[in-house]
Amino acid sequence: MNLYKSRSFNELFNDTVAFFRRYGKHFLGLYFRLLGPFYLFFLVVYTWIFYRGFQNVEPLISSVPGTVILIAFYLVILLAALLHSVYVPAYFYFFKERGTDFDVKDIWRFFLQNLGRILLFSLVMIVIFVPFLAVALVMAVILLVTIVGIIIPFVILNLLFSLWFMEYLYERKGIGAAFREAWDLMFTRFWTYTGALTVTAWLGIIVIWGLQLLGQSFILMIFFNDPAFLSEEGYTPGLTVILLFLGLTLAILVFEIFFSLFNQTMIALVYFSAKEEKYHLSSFEALDQIGANE
Q: Looking at the domain assignment, is residue 242 inside a domain?
């Protein structure tokens, strides 16, 4: 797949879908080998909290062992969040050079080799996120009258920070230099990139809301048709309710993961497209290939 090429609005969608059709098995396979154990762990803990929630889980959490477990749980969440944020940039770092000739060990190696830079970038993000978010909120209020446009400021913020992160990791520039380059890349075809990502965001939001509304309504209907739920003696959910809750949580989680990866993959294609717009790198690659064949 040619990464360095100029892409229109339609081509961003088509190439993202084409990527998943052709390389989805490898891409998703590596992702779940990397993060699958984390998600399984979260699912078990979340289901346990759902079960214990009806039996007052607060005394356990407030105990010393409970506090230690809670701190460990948050550290696991932090590690999983960092791995998730790095996965797509790491995947395309190897993909543009090797195709699919790499494994999850390479992703781990990339993560560990860049861990210091990743943590530094995360700290900078925490510091500057509030003022950037404030600007995005003001823009969202202004665009509220359009309804559909309300998410555009957050799409722009996500695009800018993602391009910034990729440039920072790929080119090993300083924080400021990577930000300036990301800003320039974003404006190579600003409305094309923003429009494609906004449409993608709305599609994801609608499906997630639909799944949540449908599933939660179904579970509440079961609860309120069970006399034990309304009793004052406390309520312990039965196996059917637990399985329904687990199934709903799993369905929403799987779709949110796929949507996040689809969105990040489109942003990765935006990155390479913007690089092509600014530097015409495909021409240099073609010349290098001609030279190699002679």
A: yes
* CB 22, CB 99: distance < 8 Å: no
What's the Cα-to-Cα distance from 159 to each of 24, 42, 48, 92, 198, rounded to whole Å? 22, 28, 36, 16, 10
Name the residue among 291, 292, 283 with its Cα closest to residue 2. Answer: 283
Output DSSP code: residue 188.
T
Domain span holding position 25: 9-130+164-284
Residues in the chain: 294
- Is residue 149 situated within a structural domain? no
Name the residue type at position 178.
A
Q: Could you give the C-alpha distances from 294 to 59, 160, 181, 286, in angstroms and in order?
A: 74, 41, 35, 13
Q: Quick check: is 159 in a domain? A: no
User: What is the band of 100 on the pLDDT scale with cuts at 50, 70, 90?
Assistant: very high
Q: Which residue has the tokens 């979340």?
A: 46
Task: Tell me how far apart the alpha carbons of residues 37 and 126 are, in angstroms, rounded to a whole number.
Answer: 27
Reported pTM: 0.83
Q: Residues 208, 256: contact at Cβ < 8 Å?
A: yes
Q: What is the count of structural domains for the chain?
A: 1
Residues 6+ apart with CB under 8 A from 48: none
For the segment 248-280, what is each residue's pLDDT rounded down to a tens digit? 777 888 888 999 999 999 999 999 999 999 998
Q: Is the pLDDT of residue 19 over 80?
A: yes
SS3 state of residue 100: coil
Task: Round to whole Å and give the CA distance between 2 and 14.
Answer: 13
Q: 58 in helix, strand or coil?
A: helix
